[in-house]
Design a protein that fits this description.
By secondary structure, the chain is mainly α. The protein has two helices and no strands. The protein has a domain of about 40 residues.
Length: about 60
């Protein structure tokens, strides 16, 4: 069985929190880094959505032909 998404999410959240705590960086530095990472992840999510939507639409066209 693959790891459930809820478990993977919690594992990831804990790993990020641990990395932040272990970094010993001040909060303003962590904030700047997290903002940059969030921006990158947001772009990746938009690209994934666009790719998934295109694939879905193409499969619907093929199904209806």
């Amino acid at each position: 069985m693959n790891k459930p998404l809820t478990v993977a999410r919690e594992d990831f959240r804990r790993a990020v929190t641990e990395a932040i705590n272990d970094s010993c960086l001040p909060a303003f530095v962590v904030f700047d880094v997290l903002q940059a990472v969030l921006s990158d992840v947001g772009r990746a999510a938009q690209q994934q959505y666009a790719a998934d939507l295109k694939a879905y639409q193409e499969s619907e066209v093929e199904k209806n032909e």
